[in-house]
Design brief:
Radius of gyration: 20 Å
Helix content: 40-55%
Oligomer: single chain
Structural class: alpha/beta
Number of helices: 15
Strand order of the largest sheet: 1-2-10-7-8-9
Bound molecules: ligand F0G
Number of strands: 10
């Protein structure tokens, strides 16, 4: 049977979605779990990449946004609002037009990858850049969400977490077991909270009984060194990183991330921008998988920990790649110079190619 999207595929497990909610869908979910043997060999593990960039708007946000917007329709909202570092706004804008709702997005001016901004604009959202960071934008969006018939669709909306937890179900199905480790970038911390909820519910449903591997994975989270409040144990007033998606100083789901880390025997650590960019390039030029910089933070943490001998030998590890590389093409051309044009001449071209 053809894939029906997250709401209808998992409706029985989305306990917080009103039963009469319509399915607002772009057929999100069912993303590939790609084996990464070369990178895995470097890390000394059996590595799989859950490529959430293959969702309809190019990030994992769609998995939760379809549920949040379905819920907004069920409760009679006429508009959705969010704060965003880019991906949430792209996803909210797409699902809002699918549902016939207005969409307002509040973003930190100048710190949104161009592809994401383009998505919010083309889907007809009202985009409000503010002279502030994501944390300032979220404070405003939370207030807007209190207005009559306005639904806040950031991950502080429990329906976002409901949808995003389904990634754990898909991983267990695809592997036929629970991974030993699940690693991902951490920004506002909704995603690590959601994935942990998914694994917890899978255990409660006895779906993991008798399978190889642990009941639940160790949850490993990666923050950018200049935006690492959870690692430092205090909010960061002015977060800085090239990974703009996770440029967040005071995550809304801070406690959820601590619970996931501590209940799973996991860890949340920081990676430098240089480590993020190295992992970003390695993913693309050794495995052929192009993700956005923030998405590479989890793999950067694996490489860092492997260097310290902290990756269990032959562990089955899943790394979520949260967003597609095409979101942020500017980053590529900042890293790798675009070659100058040459004459349209076979010999010149052949020589340039070294052939
Ligand atoms: N990776 C990408 C590509 C993201 O866009 C985000 C968050 C994260 C990782 C971190 O996930 O916040 O659940 O810990 N982006 C949000 C946004 C903040 O507005 O698009 P998280």
């Amino acid at each position: 049977m053809a894939w029906r999207g997250v709401v209808d595929e998992f409706r029985g497990r989305l306990s917080r979605l009103p039963a009469d909610a319509p399915a607002i869908t772009l057929l999100e979910g069912d993303t590939p779990l790609i084996p990464a043997p070369r990178l895995g060999a470097r890390i000394g593990a059996r590595l799989y990449l859950k490529f959430e960039g293959m969702n309809p708007t190019g990030s994992f946000k769609d998995r939760g946004m379809c549920v949040a917007v379905s819920g907004a329709v069920a409760t009679g909202a006429s508009a959705v609002v969010c704060a965003s570092t880019g991906n949430t706004s792209a996803s909210a804008a797409a699902y809002a037009c699918r549902a016939g709702l207005r969409c307002g997005v509040v973003i930190p001016d100048g710190n949104i990858a161009l592809g994401k901004l383009a998505q919010a604009l083309i889907h007809g959202a009202t985009v409000i850049p503010i002279e502030g960071n994501f944390d300032d934008a979220l404070t405003i969006a939370r207030k807007l969400g209190e207005l009559e018939s306005v639904a806040l669709v950031n991950s502080v909306n429990p329906l976002r977490i409901e949808g995003q937890k389904t990634v754990a179900f898909e991983i267990i199905d695809a592997l036929g077991r629970v991974p030993d480790v699940h690693v991902m970038p951490v920004g506002n911390a909704g995603n690590i909270t959601a994935a942990w909820l998914g694994y917890t519910e899978a255990v409660e449903a006895y779906e993991t009984a008798g399978l190889d591997g642990p009941d639940r994975p160790a949850m490993w989270g990666a923050q950018a060194a200049g935006a690492a409040p959870i690692v430092r144990g205090e909010a960061v007033a002015s977060p800085q990183t090239i990974a703009t998606a996770i440029r967040i100083g005071n995550p809304a789901s801070w406690q959820g991330a601590l619970d996931a880390r501590d209940s799973s025997g996991g860890t949340i650590e920081s990676v430098t921008d240089a480590e993020i960019l190295a992992a970003y390039r390695l993913l693309a030029d050794t495995e052929g998988v192009f993700c956005e910089p923030a998405s590479a933070a989890g793999v950067a943490l694996l490489l860092q920990k492997a260097g310290r001998g902290e990756v269990p030998a032959d562990a089955v590890i899943v790394a979520t790649l949260t967003g597609h590389g095409l979101k942020d093409p500017d980053r590529v051309v900042q890293e790798i110079a675009v070659p100058d044009a040459v004459a349209p001449d076979l010999e010149v071209v052949a020589e340039r190619l070294g052939l």
